[in-house]
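Hey, I was hoping to borrow your eyes for a little while. No rush at all, and the record is pasted right below.
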Amino acid sequence: MKIIFMGTPGFAVNSLKKLIESKFDVVGVVTSTDKPAGRGQKIRFSDAKKFALENKLNLLQPKNLKAESFISELKSLNADLFVVVAFRMLPKIVWAMPKYGTINLHASLLPNYRGAAPINWAIINGEKQTGVTTFFINEKIDTGRIVDKQIVEIENNDTAGILHDKLMKTGAELLAKTVENIKNNTYSEIEQDSLIANLLIKDAPKIFKESCKIVWENDINTIYNFIRGMSPYPAAWTEVKNTVNSKKYSLKIYKAEMEIINHSENIGKIVTDNKKIMKISVKNGFLHLLEIQLQGKKRLKINELLNGFDATKIEIS
C-alpha cells in the first residue's frame, strides 16, 4: 500500500514517524511552504519537512493545492491512501484522488470538538476525557465517516501542552492501526450523524488573542481551566497597571493552582508577600500564580520574578 502523508507540526511528525517504523510505504510527504519567522525573519522549515529531509523522503511543498503541477505530481506517485494530520483543508480534487480515500487524525472524540483547537477547548470546558479519532475526509471539515477512536484521560493539572503530547502519542498508534486495518480491509465506518442525536455537540473554533483574556469575575474552576487550556499557547493573559506611573502592560499566566477558601477581598486583587507568593482573588478563593510572563520579559517561575520585582506596585487593570 502506497501512502502520501500530509502534515506540518510536531504533532503530525509523530504519526509520520510511526508509519515509517511500521514499514508502510510512504511515497510522498506534503507539508507547508517555508516561511520567515522570529525577530530575524529567518526562513523556517516545518517540523514535517525537517523529518522528511532527515529520512530522505520525497517532499512536496505546494503553494496552491489545486495547481495543475501539484495535482499531476500527486497522480504520478500513484498512492493508494492519503493520510492527513494537522494540515490545511484539502480540495476535493485531492482528497478524492486515492482509491482507498483520504483519512485524517483529529485530536478529539468526534463528533465533539470539531474545529481548529480541540485540545484547548476540551480543557477549557473542564472535560475529564477526550481522545483521538480517525475518519475519512469529505466536503465538510471534521464530519466524515469515523473509522476508529481512542479515549485519553484528562488529569486535573493537565495543560493543553501536556494533553497535546498525550494525544500525539496515542494518535500515532491509532493512525497506524487504522492504516493497517484499511490495508487488510478489516475496518468499519460510522456516520457521525448517527452519533449526534444522543450528544450535546461542543465545537472547537480557532482561538484568537483577544479571546485569551481572563475574565476575573468567573468562578475559580472556570478561570483555572481557562489558564490550563491556553497553556503554553496561546497563553491566557490579563492586563495590569503600574500604580506608580499608571503604565499598562500584559501579563501571561502559564501555570496556576487553586486555593478554595472564603475571603473578603475584592475580585481581581493581587495579594503578594513579594517573596514567594503572588495570588489573585476570585470567587470561591485565590489563584496562586506559579509561572507567568510580564510583557517584554522572559517566562519565569513566580519566586524568580519576585526576586527583584515589586508586585505590590501593580494591580489588575
